[in-house]
Amino acid sequence: MKKKLNAIMVSGLTIGPVLGSGIIFLPPLAVEKLGGHAIYAWLIVMALGALFAYVFTRMAVVAPDNQGISTIVGEMLGKPFRELSANYLAGAVLFGPVVVALTAAEFLAPLLPATMNVHPAWIAAAVLLVCALLVISGASFMARILLVLSSLTACLLLAGSLATLVEAPALSLPRGLPELAGFGHVLLLIFWSVFGWEVLGNYVEEVDDPERTMLRAMRISLAGIISVYLLTAFALQNVPAGGMPGLLVPILGGSADLVFGILAAGLCICTIVTFTGAVSRQTAERLRTKRLSMVLQGQRPSVLILLSGNFLILGAVVLGWISFENVIEVANIFFIGNAFLGLVCGFRMLPSPTVRLGIGVLLVMMAFIVAFLPVYAIAFFLLTTAVSLWSSSRRRVSLCEDFPD
């Protein structure tokens, strides 16, 4: 009998990627720009993150298969938009894991002997390969590994933050109000900490009793994620010296930097595995209905296709054809596009006025983020959108001609 994921295991699929590289860079960035007022921004973003989680978990519960929210998008907006949503997520996972793998390489490189002189690109390639192997190992094993990595990271960051606050000579609360323009800019920057929930529906076939399990997993995950972000942000703005690794010094001493590097790499792996696993399941489901060779059927060929694409993008970065920032910006706009379509459908699906108001705020914030992205990323995104919708329309016309009324 095929093993199913329970609520604790599903929470392992969400805590890791939602924390992801965001917990490494965003709290120090917010403190640098807002000082003590950063905690206000985190409170707002965590409230929006809880709403984001609720919307996509409710959608995941009703997803009929591992295509996740793209199926719901298709039901509400039409089949071309189902394909568009799936293509957005596939595009994001073609570029995104390369960025995360290179970030992991930055933390793993110092752990290797200096005499090895390994190029970060080779470390990133090894990270991508390990993540692909975890994805094809099966949902149950994969979820257990991610649960261990994410739980260990969350517990150490919480313990370190608490110890830092206890040892701090004094705790300070922000006074007055922050400067509005700077506050809004930081809100947009740390808004990235809410992403990750949108792929939960791509695991629905592996979940035991989806409605009960996923809603429970959401509550468990939110408790952990919000606690980690708020506590680390508050500790960091009270004791900024040492940055994020410094939060572990009270409990780990001189090994804090080493352990933090390992934890950061582990969170990067969690992010890559969850998103690659989601898209490989979605792709396998999409290919299942097409008349393709059995060699291309199933999840493993989909993982191999994604891994090959990641290697090509990584190679392009190494050769200087595209920059690290180019890859980030293209991945970001595809992630936003997929989430935007999901939230539009969530607005239509969930009747609560409060929820709809919150979704409206989320949509506006994502629109503002896109407005600050470079022209080439927006142009590539629009080209992908046009080609995807045109291709879907062509297939629909072809089917109508083959099967006239």
TrEMBL record:
One of its GO terms (molecular function) is transmembrane transporter activity. The keyword Membrane applies. One of its GO terms (cellular component) is plasma membrane. InterPro entries: AA/rel_permease1, APC_superfamily. Signal peptide: none annotated. The chain crosses the membrane at residues 7-26, 38-57, 86-109, 121-139, 146-168, 180-200, 220-239, 259-280, 301-324, 330-350, 357-383. It is a multi-pass membrane protein. Keywords: Cell membrane, Membrane, Transmembrane, Transmembrane helix. Its main location: membrane. The keyword Transmembrane applies. Coiled coil: none annotated. This is APA family basic amino acid/polyamine antiporter.
